[in-house]
Amino acid sequence: MLRLIEPTAGSVNFMGEEISKLSSSALRAMRRNMQMVFQDRQAQILDLMRALKREHGTAILMITHDLGVVAEMCDRVVVMYAGQVVEQSSVRDLFDAPAHPYTQALMRARPALDAVPGEPLEAIPGAVPLPGSVESGCRFAARCPKVQERCRRDAPTLDAVDDRAGDGHLARCWYPN
Ligand code: SF4
Asked: Does the Cβ of 141 fall within 6 Å of ligand 1?
């Protein structure tokens, strides 16, 4: 409609005028009567969820891979890897000081505002193990940059870590932070 991209075929009529054939000056005048509206469906759904939560006074459990949604919507977060809880904390504490190497890798894989254009996002090497394929030790060991001998031998337990927010920050790792 605004001819920010020139049409290659067809016609566009607005208030009785064929827009695709207007001169630059006529188009500029016509644009004063137009308003662009951008629709963000995800934002609309999140707004609806917030409204339902307010109206009904209920909690919402969100299952998502989108850390931006977690940051915007949630109070507490549970990070799972290969069928296990690997970290649990307040959202603020998780983003300020992720303790588990998997969570830290997820944070580094996020798009950032100061990212260098064209530079690929950091990826976690390897793949999630098949169910039952890790016979001993930590399920993240094959992909973990901090792996040590103990990790391959003993399965880590979900234990308290440095808890800045004081509300129960847990991680399943022998060498958190
Ligand atoms: S237990 Fe070891 S391998 Fe597993 S996440 Fe922690 S440092 Fe990495």
From this structure: yes
